[in-house]
Amino acid sequence: MDASSVLDARRRSSLSRTLLLALCTAVATATVLTYNTFLQASAPSQRIHHVPLNAETILSQCTALRETPRPPTDFFARDASDRFEPGTKSTLIKNARIWTGARNGTEIVYGDVYLDKGVVKGIGYIPDYQYTSERDVIVVDAKGGWVTPGLVDLHSHLGVSSVPELHGALDVNSGHGPIVPWLRSIDGFNTHDDAFQLAIAGGVTSVQVLPGSANAIAGQAFMFKLRKTSDHTPLSMVLEPPHTLNGSASYEHPMRWRHLKQACGESLLAYGNRMDSMWSYRWAYNEARKIKEAQDAYCAKAEAGLWDELKGQVYPESSQWEVMVDVLRGRVKVSTHCYEEVDLDSMVRLTNEFEFPIASFHHASEAWLVPNLLKRTWGGTPTVGVFAAVHRYKRESFRGSAFAPRVLADSGIPVVMKSDHPILNSRYLMYEAQQAHYWGLPPHLALLSVTAVPASAAGMSHRIGVLQEGADADVVLWDSHPLQLGATPRKVWIDGILQVGAEKDNIIVGKGKEGREFQEVPNVPNWDKEREDAVKWEGLPPLAPTQYRGRVLMRNVREVTVRDLAAEDGLKTMLAQGEPTDVVVDGGRITCVGKHCLGGVNAEIELDLRGGVIAPSLMTFGSPLGVEEIMLEPSTGDGVLFDPLHGDPPAILGDKGGLVRTADALKFGTRNALLAHRAGVTYATSSLEKTTYFASPAFIAGLSVTFRTGSAHALERGAVIKQVTALHVVLSRTSPSSSVGQVSVSTQIAVLRRLLLNGEPDDTETGYWFKRVAQGAIPLVIDVASADIMAVLLKLKIEIEQARGSFMKLVFFGATEAHLIAEEIAGAKIGVILEPARPFPQVWDDRRILAGPPLTNQTSLIALIDAGVTVAVGCRDAWQPVNTRFDVAWAALETNGRITRQKAQALVSTNLEKLLDIEGWVDEDGGDLVAYEWGNVFELTSKPVAVASPRRGLVDVL
Ligand SMILES: *[C@@H]1O[C@H](CO)[C@@H](O)[C@H](O)[C@H]1NC(C)=O
Ligand SMILES: *[C@@H]1O[C@H](CO)[C@@H](O)[C@H](O)[C@H]1NC(C)=O
Ligand SMILES: *[C@@H]1O[C@H](CO)[C@@H](O)[C@H](O)[C@H]1NC(C)=O
């Protein structure tokens, strides 16, 4: 929409408001001439008053204006929850380590939790008599495992952005103007969202379902519990539905909290720029203020008995603005999506101009840079909800930082970690807290950030987010300490009803985590220096490492693993876990391992790894790393790729396929690439699959390039590993949210068949490289999710190979449903690069996922490995490579110990190299090695501190 339609929308809404008010006054209140004895007593003039028949209603309405939402005073004495489902048995969880969330997250109780009638009835020592009177009490032995409150996701679009995404259920953003406070997320809430069960499997029990951010005042939000109810309705899933929801004028007291979503900045560009959106806010709040003032004036007269002066007037109301009037009365928990200093400043000024509180700022990439500004918010400092690692995807988030949660907490600002589901899968909300902890947020605050703090920000802390007597019976029993990577719920209860982890389901959870260390809070690195730098440089600290070309001595090394093409998984552990020893690196190459190296070394620098390891660096595949700087800024990327299925490439190219090389689009030194390098991911293979966020991917997605993430430019030694790595093809369906139809899948396959059999002339890039692919000279990577399409491709491969007498190196990327035909894929010697590493049923083609524990024994990853497929793991966004080792650790831990550390390492190094046919290229000089302080590659304890690069003849100290 452009600015003029915004104006139109405004004109329309102001017109309808005028109409509405006109209608109201037309229905004149019946008044009677009454001699009111009560008024007589209080009114000295003793005259006759016109008291309206509905005076009592009006007076109670006026009294209600002063009411503020709060729980009933006897709330904690309740015997049963209003959400109790009759027939639910009581549950006693015994022998647990209970993190209650109370006392600022520092309380840990060893003992039992008793759940009865949907309510927590006891914590700690539960005497027998408390439950033996119950006929059917289910006893669960936690065996010393951790128990926490159910997780609360403060920012979610579950139900309104449901999956698999379908055109018929896009109910998250309105196209009807920047100001739409009258919309309600409950009206678009799809009770059949596949993601509910997944989120519960991650321990998430309550979420705030927000409308999207494409509107400034975007509509009313609601707190939902994710349990399926016997009523099957959205309303029955809402926690404490506001009494106004069904229009009842009279209701039980006290009043309940309402919720509203606001957004500012870039996501409102459809309606104008920042100045436009702030004016639309001021206009809207002014409308609401006029009504509030009119109500107050009216009530002042009514309460003073001045009915004569109110004659012919009705109580001023507007169904369009009523929620904003409630905002001005402090009865609404406002969630505001705002990223930058400029936006936060405008918003804080707005709160002071109109005097309303904001409960929470969301995303808020620059909030950590302006804590004092946040404290000037009218009505008190808001909670700030951030992502752990999703940064730099738009200008607004370019200065976002992993250190933000800690910096905010140090400034006394409550921190929330949130999913923005489906941006991140709500199931892994605890992973956000784990990362926040890794980057410096103290453990109790990390746990609070997904429990009590979001519950408070939503006004629900009396029920959820904290385990206390009288709270809702939403409980998670974990297989490890929840801040450990891979922490998985064994059991989850909502309202006292078991949601996952029933004995009868017979799913194994937590195997391979028997070690005591899994039950403790992980030790994490010290980031004081990096955090101070980040603040000093306002989010953009220099990222270039210090380089040493001479000798580097690494001390206290516990394990050294190197590439070895002949060994299993292409990896060999030279120095197994044992007594820490010394390693000398000279010119980027290991020259000596062992205590004896010490003598005679004139090291330029000494690094103490404190029992850490040296291991091959990791590789990332699949994102536009090195092709774009900021996802949503087309000017920072390569631009739109011509799609031969949707129009002809420029004739001057002389190639109907328009095949181009990613090497020609590379840009070095992007922040994402440098951060990947610092995270031990020194190699990347990128294609042109996702050249711009807005355009759908082209069918022929170019020839990928493999490069070094830490290099400064393309001409630097070792910067480009392999100019032409693989040929990429994307098989896509019409996007559910797109109005432009995609060429049919069958047509795409027909084109592919033609190009591979004997397609374009050899003197065109398309002709030449498709022929090379058909001959098996370079791999063909096909982005595909559906098992049905993969089956077709499998047959196509055989057809081509028979026709050409060749062996094609085929790789499926994405491959969500590959597990359904794992044996066949293995038989056809097709490789798989799974993305995401842990599956999500995003669209229809992805829907048949193997969710993993606690929902299924199997995961796609282990099913494919067991079938004998060479598997690697990829990603799609350039912010993700930084998390490679943690993502893989998660995927490996979810297999119940069936993936060893070495196999996990192979998934993001040697297996990728094998599938992309670049083993020899990476291994030429042994390949880069990364030194980790304190722990191994896949632990939260460790920190990459150096990259030894034989090809470049140097060591980067990070
Ligand atoms: C919790 O932390 C806040 C902020 O640091 C502090 O003001 C409050 O006193 C603490 N409460 C308890 C019970 O420790
Ligand atoms: C409206 O909701 C209130 C409680 O919030 C309830 O008491 C009342 O029965 C509801 N009315 C209707 C018509 O559903
Ligand atoms: C899960 O695996 C265990 C151990 O192999 C097995 O006993 C159980 O039956 C499996 N559960 C299901 C649902 O297949």
Task: Explain the overall architecture.
The chain is α/β, with parallel strands linked by helices and 958 residues long. It folds into three domains: 68-242 and 253-269 and 325-540, Metal-dependent hydrolases (TIM Barrel, Alpha-Beta Barrel), CATH 3.20.20.140; 543-617 and 927-958, Urease, subunit C, domain 1 (Roll); 652-921, Alpha-Beta Barrel (TIM Barrel), CATH 3.20.20.140. The chain has 27 helices and 37 strands. Strands 19, 20, 21, 22, 23, 24, 35, 36 and 37 form a nine-stranded mixed β-sheet that branches. Strands 3, 4, 5, 6, 7, 16, 17 and 18 form an eight-stranded mixed β-sheet that branches. The protein is globular, with a radius of gyration of 31 Å. The structure holds 2-acetamido-2-deoxy-beta-D-glucopyranose (3 copies). One 2-acetamido-2-deoxy-beta-D-glucopyranose binds at residues 243, 246, 248, 251.
